[in-house]
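step: validate -> pass
step: tokenize input -> pass
step: predict -> running
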Amino acid sequence: MARDGENVLVKVDDEIKFRVPIHNLEGIVCFGYAGASPGLINLCCERGVVLSFLTEHGRFMGRISGGVTGNILLRKSQYRWTENEQISMRLAKRFISAKIVNSRAVLHRTIRDHPETANTGLLSSLIEKLADIHPALQAASNADEIRGIEGHAANLYFSGFNELILTHKDEFTMTDRNRRPPLDRINAMLSFLYTLLAHEVVAALESIGLDPQAGFFHRDRPGRPSLALDLMEEMRPHFVDRLVATMINRGQVLPNGFDFRENGAVLMNEETRKTILVTWQKRKQEEIIHPYLEEKVSMGLVPYIQAMLLARHIRGDLEDYPPFYWK
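step: predict -> pass
step: emit ->
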């Protein structure tokens, strides 16, 4: 990739394949080992466009961004809040509660749309069990309890995920959620799209002025975007899980679009990655009614809206943080 004035150029064997003005971009994600010219890196830093590098299979390698921006007072408040156990637990419960509610909504939508093909008995049972978790979540007295509850809820939810798949059920099946490496086609798609969602949330937090690494639920770890992982919990079911099921059910992604390695890893081929990327960009353009703002917005703006609402809460403009609940 290279720079031409205010444009980003994508070249293959010195032939220009793509040209786009930098002001049309929120971020650039590079898959594989394609390089970026110093001129392009400088342009991205000047315009606040984050340049991220991932392996061809979606594993994050690194990110280039410009100077730190945002309100230092907001970040200092954020850091103080992350050191406060009670505040961290309260926000963690908000993130995970919304994740559970949205997970139940995904399962319920399958019952509503496909009552004759889905195992409605299993899905209804899982929906009830997920609902029963909420009292324990609200009563949790420490962070480890919350993590245990979140893990239990995730296991319940994914135990019914195969019921979301209506075509090629023998090839697209999962026994559990696994990664590094993914061991089946569904997990390969989930991990890839979760990486893309994390990139969107990191960019949103940075644009608002919050530190993506200083989180409330996920443990601190060098280089880990803990706050981005916190915030994306509530978005995973609607943004990623439903999209994976939809692409499989519509035949956009086929069983032969994956490579199997000797170590058991299942990886997407180039054509499947392209299909998923195009579909992801189209999904971001879809409009929904935001549950808190009660206004029509594109799905691509949701990470920025949630980051803004969290920042307003930390600044004291909102009494509590309103998570994203999918309706």
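step: describe -> Residues 85-113 form the longest helix (29 residues).
step: cleanup -> pass
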